[in-house]
Design goal:
The complex is a heterodimer of chains A (141) and B (341).
Chain A: E1 6-10, H1 19-30, E2 34-37, H2 44-53, E3 58-63, H3 68-81, E4 88-93, H4 100-106, E5 111-112, H5 118-140
Parallel strand pairs in A: 1-2, 1-3, 3-4, 4-5
Helix pairs in contact in A: 2-3
Chain B: H1 2-14, E1 22-24, H2 26-30, H3 35-55, H4 60-63, E2 68-73, H5 77-97, H6 104-107, E3 111-115, H7 127-141, E4 146-148, H8 161-176, H9 191-214, H10 217-222, H11 225-242, H12 271-286, H13 291-303, H14 308-316, H15 321-332
Parallel strand pairs in B: 1-2, 2-3, 3-4
Helix pairs in contact in B: 3-5, 3-9, 5-7, 5-9, 7-8, 13-14, 13-15
Classes of the chains: A alpha/beta (141), B mainly alpha (341).
Chain lengths: 141, 341
Protein backbone atom coordinates (compact mmCIF):
# COMPACT_ATOMS: atom_id res chain seq x y z
CA UNK A 1 0.00 0.00 0.00
CA UNK A 2 1.55 3.32 -1.12
CA UNK A 3 0.05 5.62 1.55
CA UNK A 4 0.21 4.66 5.22
CA UNK A 5 -3.08 3.83 6.88
CA UNK A 6 -4.24 6.62 9.22
CA UNK A 7 -6.50 5.68 12.10
CA UNK A 8 -8.14 7.63 14.93
CA UNK A 9 -8.40 5.64 18.15
CA UNK A 10 -11.08 7.06 20.47
CA UNK A 11 -12.52 6.72 23.95
CA UNK A 12 -16.07 8.11 23.82
CA UNK A 13 -18.17 9.12 26.82
CA UNK A 14 -17.29 8.76 30.49
CA UNK A 15 -15.77 5.29 30.12
CA UNK A 16 -12.23 5.39 31.54
CA UNK A 17 -11.13 1.87 30.56
CA UNK A 18 -8.37 2.96 28.20
CA UNK A 19 -5.86 0.12 28.45
CA UNK A 20 -7.19 -1.65 25.36
CA UNK A 21 -7.28 1.56 23.31
CA UNK A 22 -3.71 2.43 24.28
CA UNK A 23 -2.34 -1.07 23.66
CA UNK A 24 -4.07 -1.21 20.26
CA UNK A 25 -2.74 2.28 19.41
CA UNK A 26 0.83 1.22 20.28
CA UNK A 27 0.48 -2.06 18.38
CA UNK A 28 -0.83 -0.35 15.24
CA UNK A 29 1.92 2.28 15.40
CA UNK A 30 4.55 -0.48 15.57
CA UNK A 31 2.85 -2.18 12.61
CA UNK A 32 3.43 0.96 10.51
CA UNK A 33 0.05 2.70 10.87
CA UNK A 34 -0.25 6.44 11.54
CA UNK A 35 -2.18 6.52 14.81
CA UNK A 36 -3.93 9.47 16.43
CA UNK A 37 -5.28 8.82 19.93
CA UNK A 38 -7.99 11.18 21.22
CA UNK A 39 -7.68 10.47 24.93
CA UNK A 40 -10.68 10.08 27.25
CA UNK A 41 -14.17 11.63 27.32
CA UNK A 42 -14.79 12.38 23.66
CA UNK A 43 -18.22 13.16 22.22
CA UNK A 44 -19.36 11.72 18.87
CA UNK A 45 -19.13 15.26 17.47
CA UNK A 46 -15.49 15.63 18.57
CA UNK A 47 -14.63 12.21 17.15
CA UNK A 48 -16.13 12.79 13.70
CA UNK A 49 -14.68 16.32 13.52
CA UNK A 50 -11.18 15.00 14.38
CA UNK A 51 -11.53 12.13 11.90
CA UNK A 52 -12.37 14.52 9.06
CA UNK A 53 -9.72 17.09 10.00
CA UNK A 54 -7.06 14.39 10.29
CA UNK A 55 -8.19 12.77 7.03
CA UNK A 56 -8.15 9.27 8.54
CA UNK A 57 -9.02 6.01 6.84
CA UNK A 58 -10.62 4.56 9.93
CA UNK A 59 -12.05 5.34 13.37
CA UNK A 60 -11.53 2.77 16.11
CA UNK A 61 -13.94 3.24 19.02
CA UNK A 62 -13.23 1.52 22.32
CA UNK A 63 -16.37 1.08 24.43
CA UNK A 64 -16.51 -0.82 27.74
CA UNK A 65 -19.41 1.06 29.28
CA UNK A 66 -22.38 -0.66 27.63
CA UNK A 67 -23.23 2.51 25.68
CA UNK A 68 -21.95 1.13 22.35
CA UNK A 69 -25.31 1.18 20.52
CA UNK A 70 -25.96 4.82 21.39
CA UNK A 71 -22.42 5.93 20.60
CA UNK A 72 -21.99 4.03 17.34
CA UNK A 73 -25.39 5.13 16.06
CA UNK A 74 -24.52 8.80 16.74
CA UNK A 75 -21.10 8.47 15.14
CA UNK A 76 -22.58 6.76 12.07
CA UNK A 77 -25.27 9.47 11.83
CA UNK A 78 -22.64 12.22 11.88
CA UNK A 79 -20.43 10.38 9.37
CA UNK A 80 -23.42 10.19 7.07
CA UNK A 81 -24.33 13.84 7.60
CA UNK A 82 -20.78 14.97 6.84
CA UNK A 83 -20.60 12.80 3.74
CA UNK A 84 -17.61 10.93 5.18
CA UNK A 85 -18.85 7.43 4.40
CA UNK A 86 -15.41 6.43 3.09
CA UNK A 87 -14.13 6.35 6.70
CA UNK A 88 -14.30 2.87 8.18
CA UNK A 89 -15.85 2.85 11.66
CA UNK A 90 -14.76 -0.15 13.69
CA UNK A 91 -13.86 -0.83 17.30
CA UNK A 92 -13.83 -3.09 20.28
CA UNK A 93 -14.79 -3.61 23.90
CA UNK A 94 -17.47 -5.46 25.83
CA UNK A 95 -20.02 -5.97 23.07
CA UNK A 96 -22.69 -8.66 23.58
CA UNK A 97 -23.39 -11.13 20.74
CA UNK A 98 -26.95 -9.89 20.28
CA UNK A 99 -25.74 -6.35 19.56
CA UNK A 100 -23.36 -7.40 16.78
CA UNK A 101 -26.05 -7.56 14.04
CA UNK A 102 -27.40 -4.17 15.17
CA UNK A 103 -23.94 -2.62 14.75
CA UNK A 104 -23.46 -4.29 11.37
CA UNK A 105 -26.88 -2.95 10.37
CA UNK A 106 -25.68 0.59 11.11
CA UNK A 107 -22.73 0.06 8.79
CA UNK A 108 -20.13 -0.48 11.52
CA UNK A 109 -17.17 -2.71 10.60
CA UNK A 110 -15.90 -5.70 12.55
CA UNK A 111 -15.75 -5.47 16.34
CA UNK A 112 -12.90 -6.95 18.38
CA UNK A 113 -13.49 -8.29 21.85
CA UNK A 114 -11.23 -9.28 24.78
CA UNK A 115 -8.60 -11.80 23.68
CA UNK A 116 -8.49 -10.53 20.08
CA UNK A 117 -5.03 -10.95 18.56
CA UNK A 118 -3.17 -8.09 16.92
CA UNK A 119 -2.57 -10.04 13.68
CA UNK A 120 -6.38 -10.39 13.33
CA UNK A 121 -7.21 -6.70 13.57
CA UNK A 122 -4.15 -5.58 11.60
CA UNK A 123 -5.09 -7.92 8.71
CA UNK A 124 -8.71 -6.76 8.89
CA UNK A 125 -7.78 -3.06 8.74
CA UNK A 126 -5.32 -3.57 5.88
CA UNK A 127 -7.80 -5.60 3.81
CA UNK A 128 -10.84 -3.43 4.47
CA UNK A 129 -9.07 -0.11 3.98
CA UNK A 130 -7.26 -1.40 0.89
CA UNK A 131 -10.63 -2.39 -0.55
CA UNK A 132 -12.22 0.97 0.28
CA UNK A 133 -9.32 2.87 -1.27
CA UNK A 134 -9.62 0.90 -4.50
CA UNK A 135 -13.37 1.55 -4.59
CA UNK A 136 -12.82 5.27 -4.09
CA UNK A 137 -10.18 5.41 -6.82
CA UNK A 138 -12.50 3.56 -9.18
CA UNK A 139 -15.24 6.11 -8.46
CA UNK A 140 -12.91 9.04 -9.07
CA UNK A 141 -11.76 7.76 -12.50
CA UNK B 1 -6.06 17.68 46.99
CA UNK B 2 -8.31 20.35 48.47
CA UNK B 3 -11.28 17.95 48.46
CA UNK B 4 -9.14 15.22 50.05
CA UNK B 5 -7.84 17.37 52.88
CA UNK B 6 -11.33 18.77 53.52
CA UNK B 7 -12.69 15.23 53.67
CA UNK B 8 -9.98 14.11 56.09
CA UNK B 9 -10.54 17.13 58.35
CA UNK B 10 -14.34 16.75 58.25
CA UNK B 11 -14.07 13.01 58.97
CA UNK B 12 -11.70 13.50 61.92
CA UNK B 13 -14.03 16.13 63.39
CA UNK B 14 -17.56 14.88 62.63
CA UNK B 15 -17.48 11.18 61.66
CA UNK B 16 -14.45 9.71 63.41
CA UNK B 17 -15.34 6.07 62.58
CA UNK B 18 -15.59 6.77 58.86
CA UNK B 19 -12.87 5.61 56.47
CA UNK B 20 -12.32 8.97 54.82
CA UNK B 21 -10.53 7.88 51.68
CA UNK B 22 -9.73 4.67 49.91
CA UNK B 23 -6.29 5.14 48.37
CA UNK B 24 -6.59 3.11 45.23
CA UNK B 25 -4.13 1.04 43.29
CA UNK B 26 -6.88 -1.01 41.69
CA UNK B 27 -7.28 1.19 38.63
CA UNK B 28 -3.50 1.36 38.25
CA UNK B 29 -3.21 -2.43 38.08
CA UNK B 30 -6.31 -2.75 35.88
CA UNK B 31 -4.51 -0.52 33.39
CA UNK B 32 -2.00 -3.43 33.50
CA UNK B 33 0.81 -1.93 35.53
CA UNK B 34 3.28 -4.30 37.15
CA UNK B 35 2.76 -5.34 40.79
CA UNK B 36 5.67 -3.10 41.84
CA UNK B 37 4.17 -0.10 40.04
CA UNK B 38 0.83 -0.71 41.75
CA UNK B 39 2.60 -0.89 45.12
CA UNK B 40 4.78 2.19 44.62
CA UNK B 41 2.23 4.46 42.95
CA UNK B 42 -0.56 3.66 45.42
CA UNK B 43 1.63 4.27 48.45
CA UNK B 44 3.05 7.34 46.70
CA UNK B 45 -0.50 8.70 46.44
CA UNK B 46 -1.13 7.82 50.09
CA UNK B 47 1.97 9.69 51.23
CA UNK B 48 1.00 12.68 49.08
CA UNK B 49 -2.37 12.78 50.92
CA UNK B 50 -0.62 12.53 54.28
CA UNK B 51 1.70 15.38 53.33
CA UNK B 52 -1.26 17.47 52.15
CA UNK B 53 -3.06 16.84 55.46
CA UNK B 54 -0.01 17.90 57.45
CA UNK B 55 0.48 20.95 55.21
CA UNK B 56 -3.18 21.91 55.84
CA UNK B 57 -2.33 22.08 59.55
CA UNK B 58 -3.72 18.74 60.75
CA UNK B 59 -2.02 16.50 63.30
CA UNK B 60 -1.07 13.34 61.39
CA UNK B 61 -2.57 11.08 64.09
CA UNK B 62 -5.92 12.88 63.78
CA UNK B 63 -6.58 11.55 60.27
CA UNK B 64 -4.08 8.77 59.44
CA UNK B 65 -5.84 5.98 61.41
CA UNK B 66 -8.88 6.32 59.13
CA UNK B 67 -7.02 6.16 55.82
CA UNK B 68 -7.62 2.96 53.93
CA UNK B 69 -6.06 1.41 50.82
CA UNK B 70 -7.48 -0.50 47.91
CA UNK B 71 -5.35 -3.05 46.05
CA UNK B 72 -5.76 -5.44 43.18
CA UNK B 73 -5.02 -9.15 43.47
CA UNK B 74 -3.62 -10.64 40.28
CA UNK B 75 -2.54 -14.14 39.30
CA UNK B 76 1.09 -14.46 40.37
CA UNK B 77 0.24 -15.86 43.79
CA UNK B 78 3.42 -15.26 45.78
CA UNK B 79 4.09 -11.91 44.14
CA UNK B 80 0.67 -10.71 45.29
CA UNK B 81 1.17 -11.92 48.87
CA UNK B 82 4.61 -10.27 48.91
CA UNK B 83 3.11 -7.03 47.55
CA UNK B 84 0.60 -6.81 50.42
CA UNK B 85 3.32 -7.56 52.98
CA UNK B 86 5.69 -5.00 51.44
CA UNK B 87 2.91 -2.38 51.44
CA UNK B 88 2.36 -2.81 55.19
CA UNK B 89 6.07 -2.63 55.96
CA UNK B 90 6.65 0.51 53.87
CA UNK B 91 3.56 2.27 55.24
CA UNK B 92 4.41 1.57 58.89
CA UNK B 93 8.03 2.62 58.48
CA UNK B 94 7.28 5.89 56.71
CA UNK B 95 4.34 6.88 58.89
CA UNK B 96 6.49 6.42 61.98
CA UNK B 97 9.87 7.68 60.79
CA UNK B 98 9.10 10.23 58.12
CA UNK B 99 5.73 11.67 59.20
CA UNK B 100 6.21 11.30 62.95
CA UNK B 101 2.95 9.43 63.61
CA UNK B 102 2.81 8.28 67.26
CA UNK B 103 -0.52 6.46 67.32
CA UNK B 104 0.14 2.81 66.32
CA UNK B 105 -3.16 2.87 64.40
CA UNK B 106 -1.57 5.41 62.05
CA UNK B 107 1.12 2.84 61.25
CA UNK B 108 -1.38 0.16 60.24
CA UNK B 109 -2.05 -0.18 56.55
CA UNK B 110 -5.63 -1.40 56.29
CA UNK B 111 -6.75 -2.44 52.86
CA UNK B 112 -9.55 -3.68 50.68
CA UNK B 113 -8.77 -6.03 47.79
CA UNK B 114 -10.58 -6.74 44.56
CA UNK B 115 -9.55 -9.60 42.32
CA UNK B 116 -8.15 -8.68 38.90
CA UNK B 117 -10.83 -7.98 36.32
CA UNK B 118 -8.09 -7.52 33.73
CA UNK B 119 -6.94 -11.13 34.24
CA UNK B 120 -10.29 -12.60 33.23
CA UNK B 121 -10.85 -14.05 29.78
CA UNK B 122 -13.76 -14.04 27.39
CA UNK B 123 -12.66 -17.49 26.26
CA UNK B 124 -13.88 -20.42 28.42
CA UNK B 125 -15.33 -17.98 30.99
CA UNK B 126 -15.96 -20.64 33.65
CA UNK B 127 -12.18 -20.81 34.14
CA UNK B 128 -12.47 -17.29 35.57
CA UNK B 129 -14.02 -18.81 38.72
CA UNK B 130 -10.72 -20.57 39.37
CA UNK B 131 -8.65 -17.48 38.59
CA UNK B 132 -10.75 -15.42 41.00
CA UNK B 133 -10.48 -18.06 43.74
CA UNK B 134 -6.68 -18.09 43.51
CA UNK B 135 -6.54 -14.30 43.59
CA UNK B 136 -8.91 -14.13 46.54
CA UNK B 137 -6.80 -16.66 48.43
CA UNK B 138 -3.66 -14.57 47.81
CA UNK B 139 -5.47 -11.50 49.18
CA UNK B 140 -6.55 -13.37 52.33
CA UNK B 141 -3.05 -14.79 52.84
CA UNK B 142 -1.70 -11.27 52.32
CA UNK B 143 -3.92 -10.03 55.15
CA UNK B 144 -6.66 -8.05 53.44
CA UNK B 145 -9.39 -6.52 55.64
CA UNK B 146 -12.13 -6.80 53.02
CA UNK B 147 -12.52 -8.48 49.67
CA UNK B 148 -14.40 -8.21 46.38
CA UNK B 149 -14.39 -11.27 44.13
CA UNK B 150 -15.16 -10.69 40.46
CA UNK B 151 -17.77 -12.60 38.50
CA UNK B 152 -16.78 -15.04 35.78
CA UNK B 153 -18.67 -13.21 33.04
CA UNK B 154 -17.28 -9.70 33.43
CA UNK B 155 -15.45 -9.71 30.10
CA UNK B 156 -18.77 -10.54 28.43
CA UNK B 157 -21.35 -8.35 30.13
CA UNK B 158 -22.41 -6.87 33.43
CA UNK B 159 -22.58 -9.90 35.74
CA UNK B 160 -25.56 -12.21 35.93
CA UNK B 161 -27.15 -13.21 39.25
CA UNK B 162 -25.65 -16.69 38.96
CA UNK B 163 -22.12 -15.40 38.29
CA UNK B 164 -22.31 -12.95 41.21
CA UNK B 165 -23.50 -15.69 43.55
CA UNK B 166 -20.59 -17.97 42.63
CA UNK B 167 -18.19 -15.08 43.25
CA UNK B 168 -19.74 -14.53 46.69
CA UNK B 169 -19.67 -18.26 47.48
CA UNK B 170 -15.96 -18.28 46.61
CA UNK B 171 -15.33 -15.89 49.50
CA UNK B 172 -17.58 -17.82 51.84
CA UNK B 173 -15.77 -21.02 50.96
CA UNK B 174 -12.40 -19.45 51.76
CA UNK B 175 -13.83 -18.03 54.99
CA UNK B 176 -15.53 -21.17 56.30
CA UNK B 177 -13.88 -24.14 54.66
CA UNK B 178 -10.23 -23.38 53.89
CA UNK B 179 -9.08 -22.52 57.41
CA UNK B 180 -6.81 -19.87 55.93
CA UNK B 181 -8.32 -16.77 57.63
CA UNK B 182 -7.51 -18.05 61.13
CA UNK B 183 -3.76 -17.53 60.69
CA UNK B 184 -2.11 -14.11 60.56
CA UNK B 185 0.55 -13.78 57.86
CA UNK B 186 0.72 -17.54 57.19
CA UNK B 187 3.52 -17.21 54.62
CA UNK B 188 5.74 -15.06 56.87
CA UNK B 189 9.08 -16.81 57.32
CA UNK B 190 8.99 -18.58 53.99
CA UNK B 191 12.42 -17.84 52.46
CA UNK B 192 10.91 -17.20 49.07
CA UNK B 193 8.11 -14.91 50.22
CA UNK B 194 10.47 -13.00 52.54
CA UNK B 195 12.97 -12.55 49.69
CA UNK B 196 10.23 -11.43 47.34
CA UNK B 197 8.83 -9.00 49.93
CA UNK B 198 12.29 -7.46 50.40
CA UNK B 199 12.81 -7.24 46.64
CA UNK B 200 9.47 -5.51 46.10
CA UNK B 201 10.20 -3.06 48.91
CA UNK B 202 13.54 -2.20 47.25
CA UNK B 203 11.90 -1.77 43.85
CA UNK B 204 9.20 0.46 45.34
CA UNK B 205 11.86 2.57 47.08
CA UNK B 206 13.52 3.11 43.68
CA UNK B 207 10.24 4.49 42.38
CA UNK B 208 9.89 6.75 45.45
CA UNK B 209 13.34 8.21 44.71
CA UNK B 210 12.34 8.73 41.09
CA UNK B 211 9.09 10.45 42.18
CA UNK B 212 11.09 12.76 44.49
CA UNK B 213 13.38 13.62 41.57
CA UNK B 214 10.33 14.46 39.46
CA UNK B 215 9.09 16.83 42.16
CA UNK B 216 6.35 14.67 43.73
CA UNK B 217 3.22 12.76 42.72
CA UNK B 218 1.26 15.68 41.29
CA UNK B 219 4.14 16.79 39.08
CA UNK B 220 4.55 13.17 37.97
CA UNK B 221 0.87 13.01 36.95
CA UNK B 222 1.05 16.35 35.15
CA UNK B 223 4.18 15.22 33.31
CA UNK B 224 2.47 11.96 32.30
CA UNK B 225 5.19 9.91 34.05
CA UNK B 226 2.84 7.37 35.67
CA UNK B 227 0.65 7.07 32.59
CA UNK B 228 3.72 6.34 30.44
CA UNK B 229 5.19 3.81 32.88
CA UNK B 230 1.89 1.95 33.14
CA UNK B 231 1.21 2.15 29.40
CA UNK B 232 4.62 0.66 28.68
CA UNK B 233 4.01 -2.20 31.14
CA UNK B 234 0.60 -2.90 29.55
CA UNK B 235 2.11 -3.02 26.09
CA UNK B 236 4.89 -5.36 27.22
CA UNK B 237 2.30 -7.61 28.89
CA UNK B 238 0.29 -7.85 25.67
CA UNK B 239 3.44 -8.51 23.64
CA UNK B 240 4.42 -11.31 26.02
CA UNK B 241 0.96 -12.84 25.53
CA UNK B 242 1.17 -12.67 21.76
CA UNK B 243 4.68 -14.14 21.72
CA UNK B 244 3.45 -16.82 24.14
CA UNK B 245 6.12 -15.94 26.67
CA UNK B 246 3.20 -15.61 29.07
CA UNK B 247 0.51 -18.26 28.98
CA UNK B 248 -3.17 -17.54 29.52
CA UNK B 249 -5.23 -20.72 29.42
CA UNK B 250 -7.92 -20.58 26.76
CA UNK B 251 -6.39 -17.52 25.09
CA UNK B 252 -2.96 -18.57 23.84
CA UNK B 253 -2.82 -22.15 25.09
CA UNK B 254 -5.44 -24.89 25.42
CA UNK B 255 -7.59 -22.87 23.06
CA UNK B 256 -10.97 -24.32 22.09
CA UNK B 257 -12.13 -23.44 18.62
CA UNK B 258 -15.87 -22.95 18.17
CA UNK B 259 -16.60 -22.53 21.86
CA UNK B 260 -20.14 -23.12 22.97
CA UNK B 261 -20.99 -20.58 25.68
CA UNK B 262 -23.06 -22.27 28.37
CA UNK B 263 -23.45 -19.55 31.00
CA UNK B 264 -26.39 -17.13 31.26
CA UNK B 265 -25.59 -13.50 30.42
CA UNK B 266 -27.30 -10.38 31.67
CA UNK B 267 -28.46 -8.10 28.88
CA UNK B 268 -29.16 -4.43 29.50
CA UNK B 269 -30.70 -2.57 26.62
CA UNK B 270 -30.83 1.16 25.93
CA UNK B 271 -34.05 1.60 27.93
CA UNK B 272 -31.93 1.62 31.13
CA UNK B 273 -30.41 4.94 30.05
CA UNK B 274 -33.76 6.36 28.99
CA UNK B 275 -35.38 5.44 32.32
CA UNK B 276 -32.60 7.13 34.27
CA UNK B 277 -32.94 10.25 32.11
CA UNK B 278 -36.69 10.29 32.87
CA UNK B 279 -36.07 9.90 36.62
CA UNK B 280 -33.62 12.78 36.47
CA UNK B 281 -36.10 15.06 34.62
CA UNK B 282 -38.80 14.21 37.18
CA UNK B 283 -36.43 15.07 40.03
CA UNK B 284 -35.49 18.37 38.40
CA UNK B 285 -39.18 19.24 37.96
CA UNK B 286 -40.19 18.64 41.58
CA UNK B 287 -37.22 19.95 43.58
CA UNK B 288 -36.59 23.51 44.79
CA UNK B 289 -34.14 25.55 42.74
CA UNK B 290 -30.65 24.26 43.72
CA UNK B 291 -28.89 27.48 42.60
CA UNK B 292 -28.34 28.86 46.15
CA UNK B 293 -26.83 25.51 47.25
CA UNK B 294 -24.51 25.47 44.26
CA UNK B 295 -23.62 29.09 44.93
CA UNK B 296 -22.53 28.21 48.46
CA UNK B 297 -20.27 25.44 47.05
CA UNK B 298 -18.63 27.96 44.70
CA UNK B 299 -18.17 30.38 47.58
CA UNK B 300 -16.56 27.70 49.79
CA UNK B 301 -14.23 26.69 46.94
CA UNK B 302 -13.09 30.29 46.79
CA UNK B 303 -12.94 31.27 50.46
CA UNK B 304 -11.26 28.08 51.74
CA UNK B 305 -14.09 26.97 54.06
CA UNK B 306 -14.38 23.18 54.44
CA UNK B 307 -16.35 21.98 51.41
CA UNK B 308 -17.97 18.93 53.00
CA UNK B 309 -20.94 20.60 54.79
CA UNK B 310 -21.79 22.47 51.57
CA UNK B 311 -21.60 19.31 49.47
CA UNK B 312 -23.82 17.44 51.94
CA UNK B 313 -26.41 20.22 51.95
CA UNK B 314 -26.44 20.30 48.14
CA UNK B 315 -26.95 16.53 47.97
CA UNK B 316 -29.79 16.76 50.54
CA UNK B 317 -31.35 19.48 48.40
CA UNK B 318 -31.36 17.16 45.37
CA UNK B 319 -28.63 18.93 43.43
CA UNK B 320 -27.31 16.35 40.96
CA UNK B 321 -23.77 15.05 41.00
CA UNK B 322 -23.16 16.77 37.66
CA UNK B 323 -24.33 20.11 39.02
CA UNK B 324 -22.20 19.77 42.14
CA UNK B 325 -19.09 18.85 40.17
CA UNK B 326 -19.69 21.65 37.68
CA UNK B 327 -19.99 24.17 40.52
CA UNK B 328 -16.57 23.07 41.75
CA UNK B 329 -15.17 23.14 38.21
CA UNK B 330 -16.31 26.76 37.86
CA UNK B 331 -13.73 27.65 40.51
CA UNK B 332 -11.06 24.95 40.29
CA UNK B 333 -11.07 24.29 36.53
CA UNK B 334 -10.74 20.81 35.09
CA UNK B 335 -7.81 18.43 34.70
CA UNK B 336 -7.31 17.03 31.24
CA UNK B 337 -4.92 14.18 30.74
CA UNK B 338 -2.58 14.46 27.77
CA UNK B 339 -3.60 11.81 25.22
CA UNK B 340 -0.42 9.75 25.20
CA UNK B 341 0.07 6.13 24.36
Amino acid sequence: MERKIRILICKPGLDGHDRGAKVVASTLRDAGFEVIYTGLRQTPEMIVRDAIQEDVDAIGLSVHSGAHLTIFSRVMGLIDKEGAGHILVTGGGIIPDQDMPKLTGMGVGRMFRPGARSDEYIAYLEDEIGRRRLEREAQEV
Amino acid sequence: MRVITDMMAFGADKVPQWNTISISGYHIREAVSTAVQELAFTLGDGFAYVEAGIAAGMDVDSFAPRLSHFFNSHLDFFEEVAKFRAARRIWARRMKNKYGAKDPRSWLLRFHTQTAGCSLTEQQPENNIVRTALQALAAVMGGTQSLHTNSMDETLALPSEKAVKIALRTQQLIAHESGVPYITDPLGGSWYVEWLTNTMEDEAEKYFSKIDELGGMIRGIEDGFFQREIGRAAYEYQQALEKEERIVVGVNKHVEEAEDLKIPLLYIDESAGEEQAERLSALRARRADPAPLLGSIRAACENGENLMPHLIEAAKGDATLGEIVNAMKDVFGEYREAAEF
